[in-house]
Specification:
- Strand 2, helix 2 and strand 3 form a beta-alpha-beta unit.
- 29% of the residues lie in helices and 20% in strands.
- The protein is built from 13 helices and 14 strands.
- The strands form 4 sheets. Strands 4-5-10-6-7 form a 5-stranded antiparallel beta sheet. Strands 11-12-13-14 form a 4-stranded antiparallel beta sheet, sandwiched between helices. A 3-stranded parallel beta sheet has the order 1-3-2, with helices on one face.
- The mean pLDDT is 96.
- The chain is α+β, with helices and mostly antiparallel strands.
- Helix 11 packs antiparallel against helix 12 and helix 12 crosses helix 13.
Length: 316
């Protein structure tokens, strides 16, 4: 591993100041970042890590001002076990519980899960063996013509066909959450993007400080369903977050596109209708409309239909 300086941040402003100037990265749980650094996967690794765990007041789960507020340093285990999140925002509790193993959830934070780097094996290959376009704008997306078993079934975003690796991200988009950062408050639907080595719109000196989820209408049900090759410690190949009320539906897919993908056709198909097997199946079919498999991932189209159906039925 390259030589790296480690410094503690005492406040959000201090963290931003320490991140300024480039060649620095924030770290909290470190479950994603450390593996990237250890494998020397990128051509420009940070020379300095700014520890966010030393910032007080960024770990909490509370209801305030008509919304659920979660501090950026709140662990996935704390979210998965929260009685408030489980009872009112079930999709988020289920998504947090679906991440990795207990050990990873104990260390990993909600901010870290939505800010992790791509999981494409070309991006993650050790010693930067494949200098792909996420790391070099003039590079290639090797997955387009080679190994693409785990990749997008809805085409490329910014030239990349990776699948969104975050379990929490689709849940937050489906919940119409907002992400508060050191610079702005932004809709979760606009937070995710193909942005060089990152999958968010964050600037290099910008950090997440809080997740804000608006209170759901009475009677709203929600669920998160995930498919992965391994039952545990695996990233979603296909996932679906569904939030459904008597008059509205929000359905978002993960793992099938470089960022969370809202299934608007599926929402229209189920909105205001009785949740039963036939209607859920029809909505699942709509969720996969517009998909186009790469050479090795056609199986994901059918799984997207099934995960959508299961998420909807779980909201019955």
């Amino acid at each position: 591993m390259n030589k790296i300086t480690h410094v503690d941040a005492t406040s959000v402003d201090d963290a931003v100041a320490k991140l300024a100037g480039g060649s620095a990265a924030p770290i909290a749980g470190g479950t994603d970042l450390i593996t990237t650094l250890k494998g020397m996967c990128t051509p420009t690794p940070p020379a300095k890590l700014v520890n966010l765990k030393t910032i007080s007041g960024l770990k909490y789960i509370k209801e305030e001002g008509g919304m659920l507020k979660i501090g950026a340093l709140t662990t996935l285990t704390e979210i998965a076990k929260s009685s408030v999140v489980n009872s009112k925002y079930t999709v988020l509790a289920q998504a947090a519980k679906a991440v990795g193993s207990p050990e990873l959830r104990n260390a990993g934070t909600i901010a870290g899960n939505i800010c992790q780097k791509p999981r494409c094996p070309y991006f993650r290959n050790e010693h930067n063996a494949f200098n792909c376009l996420r790391k070099n704008s003039s590079g290639l997306c090797y997955a387009l013509t080679d190994y693409n078993v785990k990749h997008s079934i809805f085409g490329a975003a910014g030239g990349c066909v990776d699948g969104c690796p975050s379990d929490v991200a689709p849940a937050l988009v489906a919940l119409k959450a907002k992400i508060k950062t050191s610079k702005q408050t932004i809709d979760a639907a606009d937070f995710f993007a193909v942005n060089g080595e990152n999958m968010t719109v964050l600037d290099a000196d910008e950090i997440v400080t809080e997740i804000q989820v608006p209170e759901l209408a009475s009677g709203t049900k929600s669920a998160y369903k995930k498919f992965a090759f391994r039952k545990s410690i695996d990233f979603p190949l296909v996932s679906c977050a569904a939030v459904i009320s008597a008059s509205d539906a929000s359905i978002v897919l993960g793992g099938v596109y470089p960022i969370p993908r809202r299934a608007t056709a599926a929402e229209t198909a189920i909105k205001g209708k009785t949740i039963d097997d036939a209607n859920a199946t029809a909505a699942g079919d709509e969720a996969a409309k517009g998909s186009a498999a790469l050479g090795q991932n056609k199986y994901k189209i059918q799984i997207a239909k099934v995960m959508t159906k299961r998420a909807i039925l779980a909201c019955k």
